[in-house]
Amino acid sequence: MTQAAPPAGRNEFARVAKSPASPWRRIFRIIRWTIYTFALVMLVLLLHKAPPPLVETSPQAAARAEEKIEQVEKTVASGQPATLRMDEAELNSYLASHLALAGNGAPKAATAGGAQSASSSAAPTPQEVEQMRSNVRDFKVQLIDDRVKAYFVLNVHGKDMTLQLEGRLDAQNGYLHFEPLSGQLGSLPIPQSALESAVQRLMDSPENREKLKLPSEISDLRIQNGEVVASYK
Questions:
Q1: What pLDDT is stored for residue 208 in this prediction?
Q2: Higher model confidence: residue 128 or residue 51?
């Protein structure tokens, strides 16, 4: 028995009902794969480590930095104002010999109290030192005219990621202040608004506020002509 064909009106209704769905499914697939591709590119950029900057470090530069700090301390102890200047090599060498980073071992003891004048008044606790060593793998600083560019290698959930921050450093009301100009996580630039908001929250948080407090002897701190310049009362 031959099955009767459906009415022509029914075929026409089915065609009209199905036709809009096909373009929408196609658009949805395009959006979905665009999101997947964008997320994959973001992940690759985040995990792609930026190469470290070429900065000079040497025991001789670290010794020069120590000598400068000791000389400034003696001048301040005699009741006279003083100015400490460190170039890029001296700063990186001093930091490399004193910061407790993973792979660097324990920080060296300060000589003649020199490190005390360059650090904040509150020494880090053993827990803070251990946390720094476990998370920060490398740290380098570039001094460019009146700007500082910091390079970090951070261990996040077992993966090394790079963070670069560039900005201006100065002292405001006895506290260290950083004005961010640009940032990059891995190979992915950080939007300026997000960067400024994150830095502001970090600087304003009570737990970080005291860590940013400068020693009472320091009246000013800035980057000038590719050098760190600290003015002592």
A1: 74
A2: 51
